[in-house]
Amino acid sequence: MAEHKHGSMDTKVQEKTFEGFIRFSVWGAGISIGILIFMALVNA
């Protein structure tokens, strides 16, 4: 079994993936809120 040294793992790929996930989530929430506001204005 290989020895594990704490703090030696390269996390660049995980950080980039997480950044993309957060960006996608923010855009998705913004678009959803925009659609809801548009629907409320059109239905009024």
List the helices and strands and how they pair.
Blueprint: H1 12-43
Protein architecture, described:
- By secondary structure, the protein is mostly helical.
- Helices cover 73% and strands 0% of the residues.
- It has one helix at residues 12-43.
- The longest helix has 32 residues, at 12-43.
- It starts with 11 loop residues before the first helix and ends with a helix.
Oligomeric form:
single chain
How would a crystallographer describe the biggest sheet?
A: none
- End-to-end span in angstroms? 66 Å
Strand content: under 5%
Round the mean pLDDT to the nearest integer and report it: 92
Count the beta strands: 0
Number of helices: 1
- The low-confidence runs, each spanning 5 or more residues with pLDDT under 50, are none
Rounded to an integer in angstroms, the radius of gyration calculated over CA atoms is 20 Å
Content-based structural category: mainly alpha
Succession of helices and strands: H
**Shape category:** rod-shaped
**What fraction, in percent, of the residue positions are helical?**
over 70%
Keywords:
44 residues; mainly alpha; single chain
Give a short summary of the structure.
The chain is mostly helical. It contains one helix and no strands.
